[in-house]
Each structure stands twice: as C-alpha cells, then as structure tokens.
Amino acid sequence: MLIKRIVCEVDAANAEAFSKAQSQWGALSHVNGFIKQAGGWRKTADGLFSAEIISVWENREVYEAFMENVHDSIYEENEQKAVLLSIKVTLYEEDESFIYDLLHNSDIRCEPDWTVLKA
Predict the structure, then answer these.
(1) Model pTM score
(2) Which member of 6, 14, 17, 57 lies 3.0 to 4.6 Å from 63 by CB, making a disulfide possible if both were Cys?
(3) Read out DSSP for 69-103?
C-alpha cells in the first residue's frame, strides 16, 4: 500500500474556503487503485491552521497514474490552491497499522466531509 500524507498550512480567514474545497475531492472514489482519503484540522502554535489529509492507494503505480492523469483537473476545479499558504506531501509504503495510527490521531479534529471512500 502507498500512503500519501498531505499537510497544508491555511490562515484563519481561508479555513472555511479550504474545507469547502477539500470536500470536493469525491471524484477520487472512481479512480483506479484509490482506497480511502480522510483528514481534518490541527491548530498550530502560531495561530495558523494545519490541515492534514491521508490518502491510501493500492500501490505506487496507480498513484502515479492518478497524479499524471487526474489530480490536476480536480485540484484546479476546486480552486484550493488559492487558499494555501504551504503544502507538504510525504509518501510512505507501509502496512495497515501505520494507516490506522495516521487516521486516528487524537490531535486532529476530523472533518467528515473530507472523507472519500472507494466507490
């Protein structure tokens, strides 16, 4: 399995717009090799908001095909880029227990509208 951890810094004025854009990733549910995506907010010490999103893929090959063929159209359509201060992406090839720990972090307030499941 491939796990993608996305951490986005957003200022308070754009938190609602970011959340709305993040809830528009439903097209993932029909992408070959996609398994699940979920995330939420973590308040940072400097007063900014940190959005953390975890997506799970069957393997690196299907993830790379998604990045090459689908990602940019979803990202551009929901205009999420306009509200980001920064974004950091980390990829892991790990087992299910690692995924569980990432998705059930008590420091993160989960946003149900951000969850996407395979169709």
Answers:
(1) 0.86
(2) 57
(3) HTHHHHHHHTTGGGG-SEEEEEEE---HHHHHHHH
